[in-house]
Amino acid sequence: MHKYFIIIRNIACFICCIFLTTGCDNQTESPRKPVVVSKKVVVSKSGVQKPGEQKKAATSKPVEKKQVSKPESKQPQKSTPIKAESPPKAVTDDTDRKPVTLAALKIKLPVTTVLYNPEGKIDPFAPLFREKKSAAVKTLKKGKGKICIPLTPLQKIDLSQLRLVGIIRSASGNKALVEEASGKGYVIKKGTYIGINCGTVGKILKDRVIVDEPLLSVSEVDKDSIYDVDGKNFFMSEFDGKSYVNLEGKKFEAKILNIDGKSYYVNPQEMKLQKPPGE
Fold first, then answer.
1. What would the DSSP string read from start to end of the chain?
2. Least crowded by CB within 10 Å, which of 15, 19, 107, 235?
3. Domains of the chain from N-terminus onward
């Protein structure tokens, strides 16, 4: 039995070797040569003349020479040069473009001057509530025309040179005592002319005397104007139906004084009672 196995094994190995050798011997096939087919060309007898007949035809008929007209030489036409179309410009990137300056883009426009006309327009800087004033200032000086003629010694002395030293209170009317720098005294009452500005005593209170000095004539004052009185601005204003005098930042209710039949706006001046030393 062992011998049979050995024989079968040897036969199998031999068959495998045959397959291996035959597989390795196969080489690539060489390209095949094209097959050439050759045949004889058969010519019909009718189209071929015998050599004897060709000679007879050549001797019997002379060969006519045909004049071949030369073809007219065509004059060469002038060729017009054809302009070659220029190729379209390639689109360049943004990096290839030249920077355009602002000066090149400026367009010169005709120079025109426009003047602003504020007429009929609202002033944005004006306050909402204000007293009406006129821009024009009228210069009226109070000292040129004499309102009254000084008749008493008190009318020749300025109020700043007088001193209030006492007040007398009574049922018939209060009185006051004033004295000048020299020590001379005067008794005054309501309506007494006092001072160089033609002032009159308006009120005598317990500690002071009010002297009304005329400013300007009522007929000469325009409510929408500003006046210059001895270097001081003067104008009128109204509030709650009452008239007020504005004199260099000081505001007081308007009061009218009649002197020789003429009405004047009044500037009140105060003379205060001086306390004795030690009090």
1. -HHHHHHHHHHHHHHHHHHHHHHHH--PPPPPPPPP---PPP--STT---HHHHHHHHHHSPPPPPP-PPPPPPPPPPPPPPPPPPPPPPPPPTTTSPPPPHHHH-------------TT---TTS-SS-----S-EEE--SSSS-SS---SGGGGS-GGG-EEEEEE--TT--EEEEE-TTS-EEEE-TT-EETTTTEEEEEE-SSEEEEEEEEEEGGG--TT-EEEETTEEEEEEEETTEEEEEETTEEEE--EEEETTEEEEEEEEEEEBPPPTT-
2. 107
3. 137-272 (2.30.30.830)
